[in-house]
Specification:
Elements (H helix, E strand, L loop, with lengths): L1 E6 L7 H12 L5 E5 L15 H13 L2 E5 L9 H9 L11 E4 L7 H11 L21 H5 L2 H21 L7
Parallel strand pairs: 1-2, 1-3, 3-4
Length: 178
């Protein structure tokens, strides 16, 4: 099984990107987690253009994944513009239709997470609730090794990744990419 992990932040050291790198390490054995890192190269969304190779790479990555894990920060009571742009590129061809997704958070989000969930519902991506958790980072200056070495952070993250795999296998077996 292959999962795609997409951080809503462009910062390499963002807590969201750290959370996804730790999730990759904590994924059940035999599960490949690919980190999507091309968000900063995507052109501004315009439905009148195809977006070129960078958009094609994004769409292929989503299509080739059995499920997608999203994690996003909250900026000014909403999703970061670059992350919304990425989601906009996934509207017209339906790459997320019936593609199981999980929503992880490095801290409680009052506005961005509900917005992301609404967009995912609109894109007809089923959200695996048991796999969608907030892992309460004590600070935004935390590294991957600190997450992996902290039972309070690593255990719920590992549990969420295992729950996502189970959700896909049990509830969405037709979504598995042959």
């Amino acid at each position: 099984m292959t999962l795609l992990a997409i951080s809503g932040s462009l910062r390499v050291a963002s807590s969201n990107s750290v959370l996804l790198r730790a999730a990759k390490t904590l994924a059940p054995e035999g599960i490949e987690v690919r980190l999507y890192e091309g968000m900063g190269e995507l052109p501004h969304f315009n439905p009148e253009i195809d977006g070129g190779e960078t958009v094609a790479v994004l769409k292929r990555a989503v299509i080739e994944a059995d499920g997608v894990v999203f994690c996003t920060p909250e900026y000014v009571h909403g999703l970061p513009g670059s992350f919304k742009n990425l989601l906009d590129w996934l509207v017209s061809d339906g790459e997320l239709w019936d593609k199981p997704v999980a929503v992880l958070s490095a801290r409680k989000s009052e506005f961005a997470e509900p917005q992301l969930r609404e967009i995912l519902r609109t894109l007809m991506a089923p959200i695996c609730e048991d796999a969608s958790v907030t892992v309460p980072f004590p600070t935004n200056k935390i590294g991957e090794s600190e997450v992996l070495n902290s039972p309070e952070l690593a255990e719920p993250l590992g549990t969420a990744m295992a729950a996502f795999v189970r959700c896909i296998e049990e509830s969405y077996p037709d979504a598995l990419v042959p």
